Input
Amino acid sequence: MDFELNDIELDVIRTARDFATTQVRSRAREIDQTNRFPADLAKEMGRLGLLGLHMPEEFGGTGLGYKAYVLAIEQVCAASMTVGAIIAINALAQESILRFGTHEQKQRYLPALISGDSLSTFAFTEGQTGSDPRAISTTAVPDGDTYVISGEKTFASLAPAACVAVIFAKDDSGKASAFLVDTDSEGFIIEGELETMGIRGEDVCPVRLKEVRIPRSSLLGDAGQGYNALLTAINVGQLGIAAESVGVAAAAITMSLDYARNRTVRDRPMTDLPTIQSLLGEMSARTEAARWLTYRTADLKDRGRLTGKDSATAKLLASQVVNEVVDMAMQIHGSYGYTKELEIERLYRDAKVTQIYEVVSEVQRLIIGGSLARES
Ligand SMILES: Cc1cc2nc3c(=O)[nH]c(=O)nc-3n(C[C@H](O)[C@H](O)[C@H](O)COP(=O)(O)OP(=O)(O)OC[C@H]3O[C@@H](n4cnc5c(N)ncnc54)[C@H](O)[C@@H]3O)c2cc1C
Output
């Protein structure tokens, strides 16, 4: 076992950290307050190569792998989870196109999604379901050389900035298939972004598909095999969410230390209090465990050995850790942390979504437990 990051991975950390501290940190509050998508920062991440660390060089990526992907997300999320999560959300369509797309589909979409010239959205969730492909009601009806897609997706992050959407719909086989839908297609209607509690500015939008006609060649992978594309993409998305969690937890520790060092209790810095040291110790230990589990899980993906159980484990643990850590950080900040004056309240709101999106924690536990139960 090698627990050392190599020089290239350290370079990725430096690039992402430099971008986060010089360009993102000062914008985090404004993005949260205005709920406005930071298009310029997304573009800059493309320019710096942060959107294509795990993508092959053939399509404009750097081919450094999934460990580099999680390292970059962690660093950027320490400054703004909204900005860092763009990498992980965009990776959902990237991954499905890379693993299930034809060469033509890869050539058509991947370069722009890696350079940041455009982004992608990945729309599965509907009013009645966030994780059950059997329950989706969006349809894709074959009509000659085309499919006609109709339905409503309730949460599609990055939709207004996306050139392409991966849409899950039931075809004539009655099973879910994945389709690549250009967002400028007639009938692709973005209904306006939602007001979310955290990761504000991610442009999470309901999307209406009003008889959107797409060529048959827009099918992604085989008909009726949408679930495979969904799981493959979600495994990488969950790795990203584990990294988001580690980044936010690390930021909460830094903020807590800064606050406690500069506040006095009975003429002594608050950091002298055993209760504060105990909280900091707990926060640090839990974050370190989540960090190394995330790196190890990314390493499994790099070695082609990642299972759904592994990515569920990393996301379950890291999302739990970040929620515990921001809660402890809030306690250290006292009432001031509970106001909008200090940044910790944003982290508190941002952290919650890690236990909800891309499979709720309750289902993650069942995936892990079910997998253990089936092991001989
Ligand atoms: C900020 C944000 C961005 C998002 N972006 C996207 C996006 O880009 N694309 C997209 O497709 N979706 C997106 N989503 C949607 C998100 O992925 C789903 O909402 C999520 O998967 C949960 O699905 P649900 O809301 O239907 O919850 P439900 O499935 O209704 O679950 C609600 C609760 O019911 C319980 N529960 C449900 N099922 C089970 C079960 N099988 N066993 C035990 N308990 C269960 C759990 O307690 C769970 O917390 C986004 C959501 C948010 C908040």
